Amino acid sequence: MHSILIAAILLASSSLVLGHGQVNRVTVGSIANSGPNQYWAGDAKNKVTATRVMYQASSPAYVLYDDFTDNSKMSCEGSAKSPAPRTISVAAGQELTVYWQGATGELNGQPGTGSLTAYNPWVHAMGFVFDYITSCNGDCTTFDSTNAGWTKIAHAGIDMTQTISNDLRQTMKNKPEPYYPSSGPGLWAMAKMVQQGSAWNIRIPASLESGQYLIRHELAAVHNPKNSDPTTGPQLYIACIQLDVTNGGDRFLPAGTQSNALYLPNGAFANTNVLSSSFNPAKVVIPGPAIWDGVSGGVVNRGVNTTEYVSEERSAGGSAAKHAVHHSRSRARVNRLP
Ligand SMILES: [Cu+2]
């Protein structure tokens, strides 16, 4: 009995390797910016994209728990030092929409995927969605994000006030990754995303000062629970999108959390087991730092007296002081513009 179950799980795990995907495009209002071609750098759209190249569909296809402490991989899936050539303009307080595309056609035209047929829908339906942001300290197209401090602006786990559609539940049953909870309430953020046409909205905080920022938009699929095999556990798909935020408010971001400190390789998140008989969707905790309140960090100094401002921040602690000094420098640069 048990060996049959184990064999079934192993079979399921091996076929899951074919999943995955990437950003199809990012939109702001009626403006669309295509994601890059991950497989051919010479593609013309790679010269005009604002989304950094992610891993391809084959190994490595996503970030696993062994790499949760790796700043280079965790910041932008290997593109920390490989920026995209463009930025997308978005006003503070406005939304951008990220459209994901599956690398394979498993869900193409399938019920419950938001009638998306122009390209492959995203292929996983259980997991978290996280949105982080960091300042590019100037130009995102030259910004090395390896040691960036990330501020969380949104996250979603499993919504117990909602239920997956019967259509998507049935569609996932036809894959080797049936949906859990197998009945009753509990809508994973990733299922919600698939149901709405593999799209996810991200609202830029209205208080955020104008400037260039990198969004770290992250899907964390949990269909393949962790065991002794290092290729199991949550699969992180990390899209870094370069933004030019306009009409900003008067706040700058706090120092944030480096990507190698967001999640523990052996914490509750890494050990999420949707297949366990003891899995309780109501007890799922969203990992990572708290969502930014839109206030802490600091007030942008639009005057010329940056020295006084820096000394105020210094009393708040080392990293904040460092950040404040950096900000004062960028203020000074901004102030020189006509
Ligand atoms: Cu996948």
TrEMBL record:
Q: Which residues form the signal peptide?
A: 1-19
**Comment field on protein domains:** Has a modular structure: an endo-beta-1,4-glucanase catalytic module at the N-terminus, a linker rich in serines and threonines, and a C-terminal carbohydrate-binding module (CBM).
A Pfam family this protein belongs to? AA9
One Gene Ontology term of the molecular function aspect = cellulase activity
Write out the transmembrane intervals: none
Q: InterPro entries, alphabetically?
A: AA9, AA9_LPMO
| UniProt keyword list | Carbohydrate metabolism, Cellulose degradation, Disulfide bond, Hydrolase, Polysaccharide degradation, Secreted, Signal
Q: What class of enzyme is it?
A: oxidoreductase
The biased composition feature labelled Basic residues covers 323-338
Superkingdom of this entry's organism? Answer: Eukaryota
Annotated CDD domains: LPMO_AA9
Task: Tell me a GO cellular component.
Answer: extracellular region
Instruction: Output this protein's name.
Output: AA9 family lytic polysaccharide monooxygenase
> Per the UniProt entry, what is one GO biological process?
cellulose catabolic process
Where does it localize? Secreted
Task performed by this protein: Lytic polysaccharide monooxygenase (LMPO) that depolymerizes crystalline and amorphous polysaccharides via the oxidation of scissile alpha- or beta-(1-4)-glycosidic bonds, yielding C1 and/or C4 oxidation products. Catalysis by LPMOs requires the reduction of the active-site copper from Cu(II) to Cu(I) by a reducing agent and H(2)O(2) or O(2) as a cosubstrate.
> What organism does this protein naturally occur in?
Roridomyces roridus
